[in-house]
Amino acid sequence: MEQLLEKVKTYDWGQSRTALTELSELVKKSHGNAAELSKYEKGMLGVLKSDAKRAGKQFICRQLSIIGTERSVPALASMLAGEETSDMARYALERIPGEAVDDALRKAVPKTKGKIKVGIINSLGQRGDKKSAKALSGLVGSSDKMIAGAAAAALGHIGGSDASKALAKAKDAAAGKLRNIVLDAYLKCADRMVAGGNKIGALSIYKELQKKDMPTPIRTAALRGIVNATKR
Amino acid sequence: MSQKKSINTLGINRRQFLKRATGITAGALTFPYIVSSSALGRDGSVAPSNRLVMGCIGVGSMGSGDMRGFLGKKEVQVVAVCDIDRGKRDNAKKTVDGRYKNSDCKTYLDFRDIIYRDDIDLLSLALPDQWHSIPAVMGARAGKDIHAQKPLARTIREGRAICDAVKRYGRIWQTGSQQRSGGNFHRACELVRNGRIGKVYKVEVGLPTGGSSDNKPVQPVPDGVDWDFWLGPAPWVPYRGIMHWNWRWMMDYSGGQLTDWAGHHIDIAHWGMDLERTGPVEIEGKGEYPKDGIYDVPMTYNFTCKYANGIVMTVANNKQIPQGTKWTGDKGWVYVKRGKLEADPKSVLDEVIGPNETHLYESRDHKQNFLDCVKSRKETIAPAEIGHRSISVGLLGEIAMLTEEKLKWDPDKELFVNNERANRYLSRPMRSPWSA
């Protein structure tokens, strides 16, 4: 394994990837063997901390996305702010279960900006991290429309009372494309309420979204929501 | 208000009609608008103001074929084309302008500029698989009706996101699984559905063989191509000359011939089994992957799916199972592929389906079916949910081969049972800023 990991450190796109295939085969064959997998995870984290090329680190992140545990979180979290490493770190983190990942992503939000911040917000949304709802609520009003849109969409995925309150407030202030994202997220909150049995709460949102000043697709979706919520 | 009033007598145009039509199925809600015969194109003279306005996103090989198909429909007006490759964009514009004898077609690099155009009713989507879900979800959210190339999505979660968005916004969706509109496939499925081969217990699906261990060097991005945009949500890698076709052999963008063709022959298998809106409960299989080179999809594949009703379906490349779909029952078999329909006993092929038996949805022109459904607001012959369940089998097979495990699948929850590792494959983290 050590030899293969050394080859990964020097791997770059366009070169032979036999070492990469061999390593992924070894990992696959070790399924169910916690001790072996732990050894591989440790070795792979060593590659992330080394001066391996971007291609090699990306390969490792793909592997960790499948076998990574909370043990991988510190190393991956340290890559979240890097322009070349943020997306690959999220590729692994987003798939690794556990609160340590959510904590790391949440902590990275205020420390990052632009596209990197957007990616981290997207990951929190995909993971449905309820603890991030308050922080994301504050970002829906960001002057950076890309961040505001990502925060609104993430709140739609997360749902719950904090998310719906923030989106209710944001819908009146948002304009243009951002407004569509906010309204879509608000609709999703209502749909989640129906699924969770809170039909009264959902109907109140659908009725707000049925108003004449709402875009036609939103009104259409809200109408469908009312029909679904009032079904016996 | 009279149900017989036409769009024009109500003082609304085609676009307003479509915006008001919600797609809620008949019986739930009724919208008091009837389309005029002119808008339906029945009198052969559709005024431009009554045409369905379309934007085409992705106009490479499949996309330009779809675009030409819609250009041949008199009720459609293509007004915009989009591609990350300037050459493809310009060619598409030339084709559209040539068809309408003007220079009105607008070209776009960014698909969002088409989606946010209020004057566009319909989208034609034909993109590499990693790009299937994002414009589809955004398009549905913007109130567009959508024809999109198969496979429905690159991952099961993305497929579900498309289905949810289409349902939430009441949009008309058609997957480009055009075999459903082919006579022999329809006939084969009706024979199977009506018990002409008895109780089905086995299904074999053969799909093309593909993939290779070729390598390609890192090279400069061709002039006029936005490579970063082409990659979109997929991990960043340098350009290595895999546009516009060879991306299909790389797992970041496709599952190879398996996921390209699952939307055809597995789709037909499901149609015949009456399992179009569910999935298997067990999957296991093996693939042979290239050990080196740029490509990484399986060159050969073979996996087996067991359904809750006991039917076992095997899917493999056509070196192992003849291409097409074969259902075997306790009284015989039916085999269908493009241009061929066979049965044992042969007399099955002469069977007449009686008036009180199961008659499947009939379409003889796939794109026309989409347009007809846009106007009627009825479900197309290839709705999102069915396209999702068809490709889900291919994607489940892919995961079974990657994990080399016998997987148990819950088709209602769309989760693997007690298998956290396999569940990680259900979605793919997207490169910023993209999200479905």
Compose a concise summary of this entry:
The complex is a heterodimer of chains A (232) and B (436). Chain A is an all-alpha fold and 232 residues long.
Report on the structure:
The complex is a heterodimer of chains A (232) and B (436). Chain A has 232 residues and is an all-alpha fold. Chain A folds into two domains: 1-108; 127-232. Chain A has helices at residues 2-10, 18-29, 34-49, 54-67, 73-77, 86-93, 99-108, 114-127, 133-139, 145-158, 161-173, 176-195, 199-209, 216-229. The model of chain A has no long low-confidence stretch (mean pLDDT 96). Chain B is α/β, with parallel strands linked by helices and 436 residues long. Chain B has two domains: 8-179, Rossmann fold, CATH 3.40.50; 182-361 and 384-424, Dihydrodipicolinate Reductase, domain 2 (2-Layer Sandwich). Chain B is 31% helix and 18% strand. Chain B has helices at 14-20, 37-40, 61-71, 86-100, 111-115, 133-141, 156-168, 183-193, 227-231, 257-273, 366-376, 384-403, 420-424; strands at residues 52-57, 76-82, 106-108, 122-125, 145-148, 173-175, 200-207, 282-288, 300-306, 312-317, 324-329, 332-337, 340-344, 407-410, 415-416. A nine-stranded mixed beta sheet of chain B has the order 13-12-11-7-10-9-8-14-15. A six-stranded parallel beta sheet of chain B has the order 3-2-1-4-5-6, with helices on both faces. In chain B, strand 12 and strand 13 form a beta hairpin. The interface between A and B is large, with 50 and 46 residues.
